[in-house]
Every structure is written in C-alpha cells, then in structure tokens.
Amino acid sequence: DENGELTGYVHELAVAPLLKIIFDQISDEKIADFTRSFAKMANSLGITSVGDLPLHGIIREGAYRILQQSGDLPVRINFSAAMMESNEKIKALEQEFTGPLVTFNGVKEFLDGTPMGYTGFLAAPYEDKPGFVSKPLVPRDQFIARVTELDEMNVKCRVHCCGDGAVHLALDAFEEAGKANGFRDMRHAIEHIEMIVPEDIPRFKELGVVASVQPEHSPRTHYSTHPFHHLIGEERMKYMWAFKSILDTGAHMAFGTDYPVVDFTPFRGLFRCVNRLTNQLEPQGGYNPWEKLSLHEALRNYTLGSAYACGKENELGTLEPGKLADVVVLGKDPFQIISDRDQMFAMPVMMTMMDGNIVYEA
Fold first, then answer.
1. For position 10, what pLDDT does the model report?
2. Residue 23, SS3 per DSSP
3. Which of 149, 175, 188, 191 is the most exposed place for a label (fewest CB within 10 A)?
C-alpha cells in the first residue's frame, strides 16, 4: 500500500520475475559461499550428494564454476538446466560440468503446479470444481516435441508432475520419444507423483522412467482434514503417493526431500514412507497401508536409487569395494526405532564421510 506494507502474496509462477531480480543482486562468489554453508548443514544430516534443480530457469553456473575449481565442496552437486534453455547452452553445460563435485545432470521442467493450489493437472475434474482439471504448463504437443528432441540429444529430462494428468502426459512424452529415437537407458525421471491413475503404475518399469518422489510431501498433519479429501475424493486418494505399487513393478525409484519446501533431513521421510503416519500419528494403521515400504526398501531408494537416477550407481549408493567411501554413522539404529516418530525425527548423526574424508563429526 502507500505505506509500503504488504497487502497480499505472490502466487506460484508469478514469483519468477521477482526471483530473477533478487538473484541478480547476489554475486557468484556469495552464492558459492551460501552453497558451502548449505553443504555443512547437509553433512550434519548424513548427506553427501544433492540434486540442484533450476528454480524458474535460474542457473548460476558462475557459482558452480567457483565451487568446481576450489575443490573444497563437501557435497556433490548434480544440477539441471531448464528444459526450454537453448540447445547450445545445454550442450555447453554438459561439456563443462562433468564432476566430480559439480555435474550437469540434464534438464528439468514444470508440467503442472500442485493439486493443493488447483494448479495440479488432473486426469479427471477436481471433486469440488466440476469440469475443471487445470492444464499443463506446457501444451501437450510442444512438450512431447521438446522431450523427443532432447532425448535424441541424449539429454536426461526430469519433469515436475503432481497431478495424475501431468504424470500421464509425461509418460506419454517419454513413450513417444522412445518410439522416435529408440528406447535406451536414458533415465528420464518424473518428480513428485502425488497422484497417479492405476493404469500408469506399470509404465515406469515398461518405459525405464525413474519415479523420483519425496516421502515428506505426503500427509504430515491431521489426516482427517487433509485437503485431498475434498479436492480429489476418497477413490483417487487410494492412489496418492503410491510408492509400494510403483516399486513392486520393478521400476527404479529415487527418494529425496525437495528442500526447502519441506525439512531437509531424510529421517522424517524414512519414518513417513515406512509408517504412512502424520505427525499426530494419524490415521491408525497408516493411510493407504498397502503402500508402506520396508525400511530396507526406503533406505535403498534414498541411496542406490538416487545414485542410479544420476547415473552414478557404479561409484555411489552402496558400501562395497571399488566405490567411493561415502559413509554416515548414526547414533541410533533406525531398524530399532523406525516406528518411533520422536526418535526418528531427532536421529543423531555422529559422523559423515565423503570420498573417504570425514566432513562432519558431532
């Protein structure tokens, strides 16, 4: 208002121009310093590799360059460019950032928003908005054509899809790309998958698409009043965060956090996908209990699954001879306390090693 007081908020994609203005005021050196501080926090949680996905197309390769050249970063960064970035820029990034600390890992696109904001693209109308399914952020034909072009260039594509309509469209695009260019081990990925139609569950395995999900996105508070009850209805809620159903097809899954949208610690996510409970331990027995994972399955998805999604399963993800020594030592045995919310949320990390070097000690 006239006094400079905020009177509202900026919604979803409308924030993009503001972010660009903000980031333009911050030097590459300062971004690199922020990243080093972030890396220390990651190490304190037992994390040695992260994915850095572009926020509304913003990439700071100057900061990546500083970090790569300094050689002192205690996490590995696997970053993506925007899907609609020029082919020349994508290829230049691919050629420059080959690791070991900073690695170009393909492109990312938002195909929809979220069902919570009525911006998730659904396969059938919202329960409380008859006839409304929202729409993909990239028109269908344009999206399929771009994915097919990038696939031909051997560029890995990751796609944000929360609604089941967006998931279906992304799978269609990867299928069309495979038909056009030949199906091969591309490791394209779909992010989030909050909803899915049953017929799409086996397509991840069939098409070789990685299901990249974030367990801490699933219901965290007061399940009985979760917005999905009125947004998508009880029948479609049977297919929300369908981790076990997708995994049982033999598909590859990668787990992460989507920080800073939710807490960075992986231990909340482990509790969530094994127990399917909110912070209030609701509902009794867990929501959609048939989708519960064992702790072994969940840990594998957080480690080897994510390494596979980045194409680094031969050097990371398991403890075995010939691989890089990334090790975390915990103060408690998660197999003994996985059902204890408070203990899992406060899991003590005693030591973290990256490539054989101690990068954190409690």
1. 81
2. helix
3. 149
3-class secondary structure, 77: strand
Q: What does each C-alpha distance from 353 to 48, 329, 362 come to in angstroms?
A: 8, 9, 12
Q: What is the pLDDT of residue 15?
A: 82
Sites in the chain below the pLDDT cut of 50: none
Give the side-chain half-sphere CA count within 13 A for 116.
11
Alpha-carbon distance of 315 to 321, in angstroms, equals 10
Tokens read off for 230: 């009125």
Q: What is the pTM of this model?
A: 0.94
Give the burial string for 283-297 (b: 16+ CB within 10 Å, else e).
Answer: eeebbbeebbbebeb
d(CA 354, CA 362): 15
Cβ–Cβ under 8 Å, residues 345 and 271: yes
What are the CB-based long-range contacts (under 8 Å, 24+) for 307-312?
Answer: 307/49, 308/187, 308/210, 308/252, 308/254, 309/187, 309/189, 309/210, 309/212, 309/252, 309/254, 310/49, 310/51, 310/78, 310/103, 310/105, 311/105, 311/156, 311/187, 312/49, 312/78
**123-180: pLDDT as tens digits:** 999 999 999 999 999 999 999 999 999 999 999 999 999 999 999 999 999 999 999 9
